[in-house]
Amino acid sequence: MIYPAIDLMDGKCVRLLKGSFDDKTQYEEDPLEVARGYARGGAEWMHVVDLDGAKNEELVQADLIGQLAQTVGLKVQVGGGIRDMVTVKRLLDAGVERVVIGSLAVKRPFMVKHWIEEFGPERIVLAFDVNIDESGVAYPAIKGWTETTTTPFFDVLDNYTASGLKTILVTDIGRDGAGTGGNTILYRKIIQTYPNLNLITSGGVGTLDHVRELKAFNPYGIVIGRALYEGHFTLNEAIAC
User: How far is the C-alpha of 10 from the C-alpha of 26, rounded, in Å?
Assistant: First the structure.
């Protein structure tokens, strides 16, 4: 399953390079028109990130996200700035299919486990944005990728094995927006270690060969952003390859 991505700042579509808010590319397309194009291209889902929310630690673009969820004919999963149960419910009530929880999944696991129980595992995705150190160990980043934690990613994920968690989204920050290919080593290890989890991969896709490399080990989903914005290939081609 291909998840075309829309990252939002100030109501515009943008892409960050390796998670840096200081290294962004802004695209002039209307987010609603971009989403409609994805629907015409054969997408079933869309991945939306409120980058303003991620940076400010509160949902900023709720109205625009509600429009995306209600008007374009796609199932939408949304992350960025979601810090409380009220916001989760607000997004679900607005038509969002799944809510993506990032930093809190690392910082407040007890609370997030309660949300998984309260709303159901099919409505909650845990997003882990990771930096890889020199020895190859992945560490989650928080606060819109501005801070890296000291607890290894696999230790964090181990804490959720009995929670009913169903779906995770993992981004290698070092590859995000760079078009150098996904971190297949990391993703294969996740699938082998947690075969009952649905893995959505994110970060690094720049060519159709990168899509094929990821599809080869059958992840639950593949998020693609910049490569689609910049016309490296079409959504139809990514779905078909």
Answer: 10
